[in-house]
Amino acid sequence: METGLDTPCTSVTEVQGVVVTHAHLDHFGMAGRIREASGAWASLHPLDNAIMSQFENGFATRIPGLMARAGAPAEVTEQLVKGTQAAVRRIPRPDVLIEDGGRPDIPGWDLRALWTPGHSPGRLCFWEPVNRLLLSGDHVLPSTVVGTPEPDESHPDPLGDHLRALARLRGLDAAEVLPAHEHRFTGLEARLAEIDAVHQGRLAEVLAGLRAGASTVWELADHVTWHRPFRNLRGVALQNAVTDTFGCLAALVATGTARVDDGAPARWRLADS
Fold first, then answer.
1. Average pLDDT over residues 24-48
2. How far apart are CA 122 and CA 8, in angstroms?
3. How far out from the chain centre does Cα 36 lie?
4. How many Cβ atoms sit within 10 Å of the Cβ of residue 269?
5. pLDDT tens-digit profile of 115-167?
6. Across-strand partners of 125?
7. Largest CA distance in the chain
């Protein structure tokens, strides 16, 4: 951390604020250490502040229920539980809560928060109109397409939220996009179209799977084009494919295309069947 900040000729003690796009630990995890070293404030959207306890409780306890609902084999669930990241204790909480349209106090910058839920319920992008810069977090990456979490009562259609949030960025006259991973890039409009096409393609594949008679998440995920065949996925990649398939099905339910008979496993079918 300190070496990285030294590179642009500054130091951690000079940091006044940490503007965080969302609560995932690879984004918010360092905020507490920076605050301890400098007294800086750290910010999040209120909805992501509300899910911080998920990381403290750990995901291992959630996986068996998720995979049972998906219809996964017991041995796969066992391997996922073994490989799951342990619970993290004493995660710091944000000092500042920023909602849609918020303008964090950053001298010399006119950052404006854009609420772009989906990958997390309170994910934010930040638009700087003077320099035409978009700080896109995980929402728009130059080559990776991020997934969505399993739908729940609070956020029943995360993929639908994500697609609507992509559309919200259309028309921004961004000179450059600064994402949270990979590298900065230009061509925001084209990249938004590419990401949307990937999700629309997965929705179409899940729909085709339903038409072919597949009914569980485990069966339907095998109809989707991932970076490698579903049967060859392991660990986090497998878990992400399962949650993304849940997201596709929730989006189809939200549009009235499909319906679900919940259980372990849950079974989906076309709404007109």
1. 90
2. 30
3. 27
4. 15
5. 999 999 999 999 999 999 999 999 999 999 999 999 999 999 999 999 999 99
6. 114
7. 64
* Paired residues of 267 in beta bridges: 261
Q: How far apart are the first and last CA of the chain?
A: 56
Residue 47 tokens, joined: 């909805």
Q: Phi/psi zone of residue 254: left (φ > 0), alpha (ψ -120 to 50 degrees), beta?
A: alpha
Q: How far apart are CA 271 and CA 202, in angstroms?
A: 18
Cα angle vertex 220, ends 205, 203, to 5°? 30
HEC assignment per residue over 206-240: HHHHHHCCCCCHHHHHCCCCCCCCHHHCCHHHHHH
CA atoms within 13 A on the CB side of 98: 27
Q: Are 188 and 169 in contact (CB under 8 A)?
A: yes
* CA 176/CA 123 separation, integer angstroms: 20
- The phi-psi region of residue 187 (left if phi > 0; otherwise alpha if psi is between -120 and 50; otherwise beta) is left
pTM above 0.85, yes or no: yes
Render the burial of 44-73: b for 16+ CB within 10 Å, e for the rest: bbebbbebbebbeeebeeebbebbebbbbe
**How far is the CA of 87 from the CAs of 21, 32, 56, 62, 242, in angstroms?**
22, 17, 5, 12, 21
Strands (E), 30-156: 41-44, 96-97, 112-115, 124-128, 133-137
Average pLDDT over residues 230-248: 95
Residue 59 has pLDDT above 80, yes or no: no
More confident residue, 63 or 248: 248
Strand spans (E) along 120-194: 124-128, 133-137, 176-179
**Residue 163: in which H helix or E strand, if any?**
helix 158-168
Number of C-beta neighbours around residue 7 at 10 A: 7
